[in-house]
């Protein structure tokens, strides 16, 4: 009896610990609160030089303070944000975009991939509801789709192709 109480108390104590690496990759969410990654910081407000010369409001249009991540990134790297097309690519990359989409591009590709991924995760989580210890469910679900970096590096090197240097293996 005493051993059972000691074992039970050790299990309870071990359950109190948190493994930060696992919680960062946990696919499920347990909080009903807001997602902090959906909040976008806005640009600071600027006072116009003349209030009499303000442009007419554009309902449903864009604001000077609206966030434009692609355009801001292009401008920060020295490009012209106005060169971006509606698909987010630069007009200079039109040939590359045309070649990549030569076999057609489904208009609903994002929705299709999201639903396929949801089905995949649902199938992987059918028999994994009951666990005695916490498990890294992200790596568990996508293990077969992961690329082993060092064998892949060797494969490319053996093919005689130039490869970048890689950190030493820790295995």
Describe this protein with a few key phrases.
171 residues; mainly alpha; 7 helices; 39% helix; extended
Structure overview:
- By secondary structure, the protein is an all-alpha fold.
- Helices cover 39% and strands 0% of the residues.
- The chain is built from seven helices and no strands.
- The chain has helices at residues 2-15, 20-25, 69-76, 94-100, 109-124, 137-141, 149-158.
- The protein is extended.
- The two termini are 42 Å apart.
- The mean pLDDT is 76.
What general outline do the C-alpha atoms trace?
extended
Mean pLDDT: 76
Task: Compute the number of helices.
Answer: 7
Helix percentage: 25-40%
Structural class: mainly alpha
Radius of gyration: 26 Å
What composes the largest sheet?
none
Give the terminus-to-terminus CA distance: 42 Å
- Number-wise, the strands total 0
Determine the strand fraction and express it as a percent band.
under 5%
Order of helices and strands: HHHHHHH
Note poorly predicted spans: none
